[in-house]
Write a structure and sequence with these properties.
CATH architecture of the largest domain in chain A: 3-Layer(aba) Sandwich
Distance between the termini of chain A: 38 Å
Oligomer: homodimer
CATH topology of the largest domain in chain A: Aspartate Aminotransferase, domain 2
Order of helices and strands of chain A: HEHHEHEHEEHEHEEEHHHEEHEEEH
Strand order of the largest sheet of chain A: 2-9-8-7-6-3-4-5
CATH class of the largest domain in chain A: Alpha Beta
Shape of chain A: globular
Chain lengths: 367, 367
């Protein structure tokens, strides 16, 4: 029997009193609940969202997503978008349709992807990254010809790292040189604190698939993600999706299409970025104050601070933390060999809870 | 590359002018759109339905589903319910978690299940059924010890057949005798025209999983199905579900839980049964009038009339039908060896369209 993921086990175990730095839960106060309720009322009044639908996804929603790419100067047709039941399903579809020969990815590796790759027997090769950057020499030595790379260039999970412009250029060159396709997972792309960077695939000449999600922008309870790619690359993924769930919730799709028609998602994201930057600063300050031994790099966006407590076994620490009413995810869960490494989410807990949570963490660590 | 299913290709090809007897689309006028809109407004006003959620599903929804079993005299705990992204995903989860050794099923075989079994390399053994009944001797000879059977006892797809009480008893005995588990797919269970029959698994002593869905009762656009089973049987399915889509739409789940709290689903289904019985009668009358050569048995519920045009190749006929603006699914798609067999849906087209559709069909057939 396969093991359940540590993060999901933590999510199942937390009580209302637990302060959670685990998971990647958005701040519920950031959900545009009123606007989504207005959209739900509109689409249901129009009789939309209730019938079976096409596997590739709602035409209007795909058109609106394509428009958002075009607004960034990236020509995109609605037929080049496949709607998925969250980004997690997109990783599943890619794995089944394209990755049976294997995948190259960062280490530490995003747990949601690692679990899918392993479950569907996708051979995994990793190259090293830290919270301070990519090991491009390691990438170059591992990037054998053909196949695919799965990368998270914007606010990588768990390290929080964002590829620099120079790294984007060099990574794209390496992939192109060896004819490797790129699967770019941009779940956190909209959550930059200061300025966005161009998507990695725009530097590439070769095959690519771009994974996006409304989970971190709007609300993850509506399970709506998407894949942008050529019709040829999407076709086998659509065939797999038809088999595994027919199509993504028509209602969720209709609500988001209507939301995009009546609201300014960019303005909403701007508010969200401001909110999350503030929360990140509270966590960073709390760590410096109550747990000064914790080594980390201040992230430029995303949802996580990643760092390390030298000389501590984070897997043991998290068990003591659960008893103290605070949780996080040890880096070991992502394949990090640094036993002291840990991932702390800053988007879910409010300022006061964040300060208390870090104090509990320090107490559990005996520091 | 895997082939897309014929039904989904038809759904993609139909225009607003096409009269469709293909697919299994519910009548949109039967959707309780106002009640669902009221539920959507309530749950969003309460801040529900937007956050990440547990993989097994919304506690309140699972509790309400469990209650519906208990109301039928079947003791059920909320922990014995797993919420899935439609019944299609339930078949995927069962296939991956339990069916790697193989599955025994009816022939003709439900296409949605056949496609999943084949895609995930589940060896399939079938026993014969017709629109007039099961071949129990064939079942007995195929039911080797151990493993699982996947059966649709209530208004089988495509044959529309409902197992008799005597067949339920005998099938349960055969499965118990050889220690075979039962996966009972009850997608159409609520759509009986006169009286319900006890679920097949209630006759069984051994292992069983029961698959249910709100798609045919409420609306398929909300992708919400469920599996009822022991904690031990659900555990590996939950682990797979976590990998493939984390969890089913929180919003869809919250809306249905709220709907069940504020409305009488049984009363809604009674209205639906009355509506569908009327539509079935229109299709049956139209067939007798315009296509008297078509041999069929009047169904006792469900969504389909299954029958055969002797001496006709239904796969060729459907191509001519598409040009005439009417579509159906040839029985060959479900593995039926009778070339003239065809499945006609009666829930989607209204009375006038049904009559016109059958006349178009007769014209395309040259009859």
């Amino acid at each position: 029997m396969i093991k359940r993921s540590f993060i999901r086990e933590i999510l199942d175990a937390i009580t209302p009193e637990t302060i959670s730095f685990a998971g990647g839960l958005p701040d519920p106060e950031g959900f545009p609940a009123q606007a989504l309720a207005a959209s739900a009322a509109r689409v249901l009044a129009q009789g939309k969202g209730l019938q079976y639908a096409r596997t590739q996804g709602d035409r209007e929603l795909r058109e609106r997503i394509a428009e958002r790419y075009r607004a960034k100067g990236i020509p995109t047709d609605a037929d080049e978008i496949l709607i998925t039941t969250g980004s997690q399903q997109a990783i599943t579809l890619v794995s089944l349709a394209h990755l049976q020969e294997g995948v190259l990815s960062e280490s530490p590796l995003y747990l949601g992807a690692k679990n899918v790759f392993e479950y569907f027997n996708v051979p995994i090769t990793t190259f090293a990254m830290t919270r301070d950057g990519l090991d491009l020499e390691d990438l170059r030595s591992k990037a054998h010809s053909g196949g695919w790379a799965y990368l998270i260039p914007d606010f990588h999970n768990p390290t929080g790292y964002r590829y620099t412009m120079k790294e984007r250029e060099e990574v794209a060159d390496i992939l192109d040189e060896c004819g490797k396709g790129l699967i770019e997972d941009s779940a956190y792309e909209a959550l930059y604190f200061d300025a966005p960077m161009p998507l990695l695939f725009t530097f590439l000449s070769g095959r690519h698939l771009h994974l996006g999600s409304f989970s971190k922008q709007l609300a993850p309870g509506l399970r709506v993600g998407w894949v942008r790619g050529s019709r040829e690359l999407l076709a086998p993924m659509i065939a797999v999706k038809e088999r595994i769930d027919l199509h993504t919730s028509s209602l969720d799709q209709a609500i988001i299409a209507d939301y995009l028609a009546h609201n300014d998602l960019n303005a909403h994201n701007e508010t969200l970025r401001h909110r999350y930057k503030g929360r990140m600063e509270v966590l960073a300050e709390s760590l410096k104050t109550y747990l000064p031994q914790f080594e980390f790099r201040t992230p430029e966006g995303g949802m996580f601070i990643y760092g390390s407590l030298p000389g501590v076994d984070a897997s043991e620490l998290v068990k003591r933390c659960m008893a103290q009413g605070v949780v996080f995810v040890p880096g070991k869960e992502f394949g990090d060999t640094d036993a002291g490494s840990m991932r702390l989410n800053f988007t879910h807990a409010d300022a006061e809870s964040t300060r208390i949570g870090v104090q509990r963490l320090a107490k559990a660590a005996g520091l």
